[in-house]
C-alpha cells in the first residue's frame, strides 16, 4: 500500500501539530507544578518568619515584664522577690557611684537597703522601656526625701526628683547585668549639697 505526497504531507503536519500540543501541555503541567512548589516554599518561609517573629516578640515582652516586676519589688521593698528575678552573680555598672561595687545579688540587696535607709520614701517611676533581644533599655524617675546620710553628705530632709537611664542584660529569664547613668550634680543641688556650703556661685 502506497501513499501519495498529499497524504504524507498531511500525516507530517498532523504529527507536528500533535507534538506542539503535547509540548504545550507539558509546559503547562511543568509550570503548574513549579508554581505549586514555589507556593509551598513561600508558605513555609512565611510561616517560619511569622513563628520566629512571634517567638522574639514574646521573648522581649517577657524581658520587659521582668524589668517591671523588678521595679515593683524595689518600690515595695520585697527583697525576697529579687531572688527569682536576678542571677546570683549579678553585676552593676554605674559611673555615678564608683565607690559602690555590686558583683552579686547580695551586694545589690545591700545597696538597695542602704539607699532606703537614706531615702525611706524613695520610689521609681518607669517612663520609657525598650526591649531588643536580651537587652532592656529604660528611662526612669527616682523621687525621695533624704532622711539619712549619703556618703559624706548629712541628711538634708529635702526631696529630690532625679531622672536616670540604663540597660539591663537578661540571661535565662533573669537580670544578669546592668549599666546605669544619672547626673549627680542635679541630685546634690536639689538636696542642698551643691554648691558646697560657703561657696558662692557667680
Question: What are the salient characteristics of this protein?
Answer:
single chain; 202 residues; alpha+beta; Nuclear Transport Factor 2, Chain: A; five-stranded mixed sheet; 3 helices; 5 strands; elongated
Give the gist of this structure.
This protein has about 200 residues and is an alpha+beta fold. It has helices spanning about 5-75, 105-120, 185-190, and strands at about 85-95, 125-130, 135-145, 160-170, 175-180.
Care to describe what's here?
This protein starts with a helix and ends in an 11-residue tail after the last helix. The chain is built from 3 helices and 5 strands. With 202 residues, the chain is α+β, with helices and mostly antiparallel strands. A hairpin with a 2-residue loop joins β4 and β5.
Amino acid at each position: 500500500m502506497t501513499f501519495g505526497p498529499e497524504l504524507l504531507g498531511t500525516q507530517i503536519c498532523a504529527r507536528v501539530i500533535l507534538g506542539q500540543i503535547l509540548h504545550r501541555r507539558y509546559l503547562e503541567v511543568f509550570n503548574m507544578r513549579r508554581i505549586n512548589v514555589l507556593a509551598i516554599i513561600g508558605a513555609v518561609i512565611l510561616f517560619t518568619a511569622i513563628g520566629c517573629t512571634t517567638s522574639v516578640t514574646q521573648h522581649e515582652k517577657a524581658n520587659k515584664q521582668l524589668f517591671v516586676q523588678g521595679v515593683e519589688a524595689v518600690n515595695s521593698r520585697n527583697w525576697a522577690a529579687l531572688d527569682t528575678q536576678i542571677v546570683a552573680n549579678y553585676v552593676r555598672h554605674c559611673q555615678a557611684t564608683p565607690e559602690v561595687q555590686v558583683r552579686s545579688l547580695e551586694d545589690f540587696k545591700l545597696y538597695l537597703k542602704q539607699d532606703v535607709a537614706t531615702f525611706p520614701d524613695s520610689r521609681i517611676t518607669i517612663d520609657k522601656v525598650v526591649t531588643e533581644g536580651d537587652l532592656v533599655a529604660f528611662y526612669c524617675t527616682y523621687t525621695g526625701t533624704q532622711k539619712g546620710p549619703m556618703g559624706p553628705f548629712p541628711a538634708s530632709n529635702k526631696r529630690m526628683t532625679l531622672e536616670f537611664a540604663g540597660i539591663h542584660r537578661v540571661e535565662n529569664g533573669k537580670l544578669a547585668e546592668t549599666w546605669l547613668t544619672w547626673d549627680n550634680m542635679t541630685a546634690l543641688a536639689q538636696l542642698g549639697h551643691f554648691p558646697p556650703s560657703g561657696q558662692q556661685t557667680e
